[in-house]
Design goal:
The protein is mainly alpha-helical and 188 residues long. It contains nine helices and six strands.
Length: 188
């Protein structure tokens, strides 16, 4: 049986205008797939997408009609999407901004948001049925003494169904995608 996937982030036309060709790797992945984008003026307003900043505050600067939500509501939205999809991906890019700006207060703000989001996601997800993986494509926020990405190892945290076997398959960032594919195809 074919697996269903979605990217939970809410997009806006402004994102594509602002970024030009400097889109995130996950945006390029969605563009290369048959997975449709979720939009701020449709899925976000309908509670079927999550703002990149977990609240919608960033989008509201450009689109005054955006409803501000809490990180807890964002966690619940992702948990609800898990009942419809076999694979749900969400990208939080704002820790990168805090790291590049070397902004300690901003880093604390975003870490608090992520903690609140994760608490809600984990509380609202049946971890006997679903697997949650938290990881990053590089270091940055953990060392605000430099403006660039760090070469530090990136932690991966795993909760839920099959977490031990999945964890044993991951030794570096290069193992994340193959491990997810094996998990989704029942090879783990």
């Amino acid at each position: 049986m074919a697996k269903k996937a979605t990217f939970a982030n809410a997009y806006s036309k402004h994102y594509f205008e602002l970024r030009g060709e400097k889109l995130s790797a996950t945006t390029y992945a969605v563009m290369a797939s048959q997975v449709p984008f979720r939009w701020y003026d449709k899925e976000l307003q309908d509670g079927k997408a999550v703002p990149a900043d977990l609240t919608g505050e960033f989008l509201k600067r450009f689109y005054p009609d955006v409803k501000i939500i809490t990180p807890e509501e964002s966690g619940k939205i992702i948990a609800d999407l898990l009942s419809e999809y076999d694979f749900v991906m969400y990208e939080f890019p704002f820790t990168d901004e805090a790291g590049h700006n070397q902004d300690f207060e901003l880093a604390l703000k975003y870490i608090d948001r992520i903690e609140r989001f994760l608490d809600s996601l984990l509380t609202n997800t049946d971890l006997n049925e679903h697997l949650i993986i938290l990881t990053s494509d590089h270091g940055n926020i953990e060392d605000l003494s430099i403006k660039t990405h760090t070469l530090n190892k990136v932690p991966t945290i795993i909760w839920g169904k099959g977490k031990e076997k999945v964890a044993m398959s991951i030794r570096s960032i290069l193992d994340i995608t193959p491990t997810i594919i094996k998990y989704l195809t029942d090879q783990i």
